[in-house]
Amino acid sequence: MIDHISLNVGNLEKSKLFYLTALAPLGYSAVQYLQNWTAIGKHNHPMLWIQQSTITRPRLALAFKAESQQQVDEFYTAAINSGGVSHGEPESRQQESSSNRLSYSAFVLDPDGHIIEVFKPLE
């Protein structure tokens, strides 16, 4: 099981605003600040470290599991309002990585072009 992930970003302040705003509906917040780093997580546990860097490639795809379709919608709205670019509006989709199960998901490009997905599995 993955404990945390680090992501290089070109503008820490811009990315910090994006991630803290976009992931707030899922219960994520800043849990630690270091020079050129911000840790975002839940229950005081860092799960996503964003680091100021001149190297932001390769672009990554990150997926976060939501507890409800409403959280997916709220993520999408918050992400777009904080500088994200739509890469797939909220809707029901086949999850190719999970034996083609259905999920309700939304995709947004962060300020560096990383793909951020939030999904709620559908039963």
From TrEMBL:
**Annotated ranges, domain VOC:** 1-121
Cite the PROSITE patterns for this sequence: VOC
| Official protein name in the record | VOC family protein
- Which InterPro entries would you find in this protein's record? Glyas_Bleomycin-R_OHBP_Dase, VOC_core
